[in-house]
């Protein structure tokens, strides 16, 4: 099982990136999680630029999504929704519609915020956008509130949320990827 993790945060010490690192630690044996770190390089979606000469960062995103069995997106919450750069990546991965890398791709959405709700609005909006983009959004959820209290030394230390994330990773590793082909 190959999982591609995408963090919707660019910040060097991002809690959402740390959440993906924790997810990697909790994967069952035989599964692997690779992180995509190219959000910053993606140009704004522009249909005029989408075609045979698509930019290298866009091509890399699409190829890595295709090569993955499952996507795991960790999103912060910016102004009650998903970050613009994450939405932009989803837009690029949803085109061209007939051969989109996101088409029927299993995707789970998780997130953490410093607030008391763990980014549930951003996760809901991300799921909605992914469904409309043609992905197969999985009914798994982990929302980690009060991130400053749940992470230490670059890792998720809160036992309840580690257990939730571990369960999600076990379930993610069992997803039937045959349906995505």
Structural description of this entry:
The protein is an alpha/beta fold and 181 residues long. The chain has six helices and seven strands, in the order E-H-E-H-E-H-E-H-E-H-E-E-H. Strands 2-1-3-4-5 form a five-stranded parallel β-sheet, sandwiched between helices. Strands 6-7 form a two-stranded antiparallel sheet. The mean pLDDT is 95.
List the helices and strands and how they pair.
Blueprint: E1 2-7, H1 15-26, E2 32-36, H2 56-67, E3 70-74, H3 84-93, E4 106-112, H4 120-133, E5 136-144, H5 147-150, E6 151-152, E7 155-156, H6 159-172
Parallel strand pairs: 1-2, 1-3, 3-4, 4-5
Antiparallel strand pairs: 6-7
Helix pairs in contact: 1-6, 3-4
State Rg: 15 Å
Helix content: 25-40%
**How does the major sheet shape up?**
5 strands, parallel
Element string (H = helix, E = strand): EHEHEHEHEHEEH
Q: Give the assembly state of these chains.
A: single chain
State the separation between the terminal residues, measured CA to CA.
Answer: 14 Å
Structural class: alpha/beta
Number of strands: 7
Low-pLDDT stretches are: none
Total of DSSP H or I helical runs spanning 4+ residues: 6
Shape: globular
Strand content: 15-25%
Round the mean pLDDT to the nearest integer and report it. Answer: 95
| Major beta sheet, strand line-up | 2-1-3-4-5
């Amino acid at each position: 099982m190959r999982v591609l993790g995408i963090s919707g945060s660019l910040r060097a010490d991002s809690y959402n990136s740390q959440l993906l690192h924790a997810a990697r630690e909790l994967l069952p044996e035989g599964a692997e999680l690779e992180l995509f770190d190219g959000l910053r390089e993606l140009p704004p979606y522009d249909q005029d630029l989408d075609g045979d000469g698509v930019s290298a960062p866009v091509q890399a995103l699409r190829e890595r999504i295709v090569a993955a069995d499952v996507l795991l997106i960790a999103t912060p919450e910016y102004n009650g929704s998903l970050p613009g750069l994450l939405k932009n990546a989803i837009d690029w991965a949803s085109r061209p519609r007939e051969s989109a890398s996101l088409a029927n791709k299993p995707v789970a959405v998780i997130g953490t915020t410093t607030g008391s709700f763990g980014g549930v609005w951003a996760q809901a909006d991300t799921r909605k956008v992914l469904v409309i983009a043609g992905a197969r959004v999985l009914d798994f959820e982990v929302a980690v509130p009060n991130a400053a209290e749940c992470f230490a030394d670059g890792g998720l230390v809160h036992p309840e949320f580690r257990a939730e994330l571990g369960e999600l990773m076990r379930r993610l590793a069992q997803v039937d990827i045959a349906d995505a082909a």
